[in-house]
Amino acid sequence: MYRKKSIMLCAWMAIMIALTSLTPLGALCAPAKPKPGNLTINLDSYPVVDGSTATLPLSYALMSKLTGISDEQAMQRIRHSKTTQSFYSMVSGSAQLLLVYEPSQEALDYAADRGVKLEFTPIGLDALVFLINETNSVDSLSYQQLLGIYTGEITNWNQVGGADMPIVAYQRSDDSGSQVMMRGVFMKETPLAEAPTELKPAEMGGLIDELAAYRDEANAIGYSVYYYVNNMYMQPGVKLLKIDGVAPDNESIASGAYPYSQVFNAVIRADAPAASAQRKIAHWLTTNEGRELIESAGYVAMPYLP
């Protein structure tokens, strides 16, 4: 009898352990985690990758991880033509995989007009951030104040708690990823004020250089993508603004506390074969290993989805 009870007890414990391992406490309301994924791509089979300027470090890390070459070798092989242009490259067939921010509507229309269907796989989050010269006494602005600056209603820093000096509001070129993000994430239905060409640098680095140069008269403001500013091209003399008291960083972007975020994607053509390297890579970036690579490169990986 004792032996029978012991066997039954062991069986009951084994069942409970198995159930616990399958359904941890709180799993009914916890988000589901993607399964681990292992992937190796032969260098000769690696797809042609294009994308946004701010995803270049991810492109290098990804190629190095999956093919085994060094980061330096990957840097010699990978070129990004910026957000909107990379979509044109995919439509023409000269790019097979994009690591990219949201494109302009014109780029999406260009693909649709040519019968090219695209598949978007969200892989991470980034955010629109606002920059000013570090000598400017303003540290935080509200959404309404920033909106007023970029509609032209607020024209002097003394209207938002700063010194008495005119506001010089930089924008980006219309085909840039940060300009698309500015319109879609921040301005939404509100039109941007017209800006002269000299206040719309073609390169993100050019905008940051301009803001850093305003050392004696710190009246300029601009915007960019958080990862680029924080990890690729932060210049002495520039600081990031808090918005409604919230500073942008990886934690506030991931949690949603900093609200002006946008996903970035792995994009392939819908007709890419199931066994193609680009389709395998797009999927791999959603696995545990893929997310770890994204985060190790300094980005915010997509939250687990329920």
Short overview:
This protein is α/β, with parallel strands linked by helices and 306 residues long.
Would you mind describing this structure in some detail?
Residues 1-36 have low confidence and may be disordered. The strands form two sheets. Strands 1, 2, 3, 5, 6, 7, 9 and 10 form an eight-stranded mixed sheet that branches. A two-stranded parallel sheet has the order 4-8. The chain folds into two domains: 43-125 and 261-301, D-Maltodextrin-Binding Protein, domain 2 (3-Layer(aba) Sandwich), CATH 3.40.190.10; 127-255, Periplasmic binding protein-like II (D-Maltodextrin-Binding Protein, domain 2), CATH 3.40.190. It has helices at 2-22, 56-67, 71-77, 83-92, 105-113, 143-151, 177-187, 204-213, 226-232, 250-255, 277-284, 288-296; strands at 49-51, 97-100, 118-133, 140-141, 168-169, 220-225, 238-240, 242-243, 261-269, 300-301. With 306 residues, it is α/β, with parallel strands linked by helices. α2 (56-67) crosses α3 and α4 (83-92) runs parallel beside α5 (105-113). It is built from twelve helices and ten strands. Helix content is 39%, strand content 16%.
